[in-house]
Amino acid sequence: ASVVSETEVTITTPLEHTFSGIDYSVVSPASERNSVYISEQDLPEAVMIQIIIQENIRDEDDLVGAVVMGAAYFALKQHSIYRITWAVQPSIDASPMLAVMRGAISHFCADQHEGVLYLMDDEGPYAFQGNQVNPIGVQVADQWSDQVLDFSRKDTWSVRVDPLEELVYFYVTAVGDTGTRALVYDIRTQTWGQWKYTWQTGDAAK
Description:
By secondary structure, this protein is mainly beta. It has one helix at residues 90-93, and strands at 2-5, 8-10, 35-38, 49-52, 63-69, 72-77, 81-85, 95-100, 110-113, 116-121, 124-128, 133-134, 158-162, 167-172, 180-186, 191-197. The longest helix has 4 residues, at 90-93.
């Protein structure tokens, strides 16, 4: 209902129990989790156009991000990617279509290089070229399990491309890690390596 201060909010429906000092998240209602809003170019404050992705593939498949690649806009969901295109006006002729049944853990888990989008979902790393998936993570599939990786910390994972070295860093945490590690994919040789860091890696700079 309102924000009282940096440490206090008022909610519309009272909690059943009293809590203090806990983490919380503010999430969109279920009715909004398949909605994409588009504003006029260079006018982010303009009245936005709502595009609803109508799908019944997975109820828990929420939107986590978006990316523009080529002439298409891609909505990233946890378990799927939708291509959204329009001819003239998105409010009239927008057409969301399922592009692939792979998704992204979060909006941090996607980065692109030379027309290829590198992503990471619950199934592992992969590359997406607008209409097809390249399963580049086959070589590291043995590491992609809850016996090796700590999936409870996957909200801290990310994907970053170094365009000069043409390396893709898939930042993950393994079970028992105090720092972090990166599964590193070499785009030129199509081979994998692994780097370990003593401290948690916050982000990567290009």
